Amino acid sequence: xxxxxxxxxxxxxxxxxxxxxxxxxxxxxxxxxxxxxxxxxxxxxxxxxxxxxxxxxxxxxxxxxxxxxxxxxxxxxxxxxxxxxxxxxxxxxxxxxxxxxxxxxxxxxxxxxxxxxxxxxxxxxxxxxxxxxxxxxxxxxxxxxxxxxxxxxxxxxxxxxxxxxxxxxxxxxxxxxxxxxxxxxxxxxxxxxxxxxxxxxxxxxxxxxxxxxxxxxxxxxxxxxxxxxxxxxxxxxxxxxxxxxxxxxxxxxxxxxxxxxxxxxxxxxxxxxxxxxxxxxxxxxxxxxxxxxxxxxxxxxxxxxxxxxxxxxxxxxxxxxxxxxxxxxxxxxxxxxxxxxxxxxxxxxxxxxxxxxxxxxxxxxxxxxxxxxxxxxxxxxxxxxxxxxxxxxxxxxxxxxxxxxxxxxxxxxxxxxxxxxxxxxxxxxxxxxxxxxxxxxxxxxxxxxxxxxxxxxxxxxxxxxxxxxxxxxxxxxxxxx
Length: 481
Known about the structure:
The protein is an all-alpha fold. Helix content is 83%, strand content 0%.
């Protein structure tokens, strides 16, 4: 009997595993650049790149990410979440093969573009697919496993890439998307998507297989929402959709959270770790050991976050960890400022401790929470396109940070960069304070209803429709038992 109770959780973990293992592959692709670029810039490299070419290799993926985010909604909406995951995984495999077979800078650039494109498709899908297939009791933890997998991927590629060539490292990363492809075959289609297509038989079957029969009330609300009008056809209808609070408020919120992700430090350290450590601790420091050590710390911190995130309210965790992130960046900036002016001696341990605190804050909140919240706040009616619009800010912000970071360091110094990023995060947290509701423990429909504020007239107009749909839903479900 206890085993039967646990089976829904095990099945939800299957879906999370299919997504998270793929995410580990994308973590590898992010950390791969920190391994490949130093090897390409060594004397005698078969493929040589200039500093300008290196900056494009780092940032070009964030440009193609936009195209991926706007292509995937049509695939998710028309063909389903599983088909979209198949396409993403195949593109990822091809991207790794491009790195393995590359003989010129142009081919490497193509591989970076392919990885950015596939991650752009994957970014909205990961939160949507796990969010739709998981119970509110487990949703936060399962969504956080994506971040844990991404950090593990960065750690894996940094560790392996320090020992072997970047082509051999690319071969070592191929099993991640291949394994994800195999797990996807045995994963179910999203019940929410099936409901939007009117396939209520499969919707009910998949929902009960994933969640058991204790959450049937949410299934009823899901089918009820799926029967409401959707997909605007005219400009007037599109404007009406944009004006909906349940549409634009989540997008505004995710804009701010994605800016926080790129400014918090995790992305910069995944790509520019060697440069940052040498500037912080001096050119004599063993930057690779520090890089791998911080990757291990981030992986451990995210494991803790997987368990904590289901027990702590989202708002409390975001603003608590956000304050630590801002404080640590200000302290690092102040240390560099004082050291450069001779007020403090060169010391590797003080900035190392501060950097560790910053990376812990990133792993325990700044990086996982936006992904968790993205899987909870978008309305079912426009979930795919809303996720893609939100991710445009992630793409633009990531491109701006990665492309400009070397110039930023040259212009305002390392301390200026830390002061700037801490200020940006502070402003974004203030916006999130005003917009973010508490999503912990709530169903997706309850979160959507929070953003949807109906006028009395509109409420009275919609009651007959809701009553009719609810009656049909209840009748349908009762005949299935």
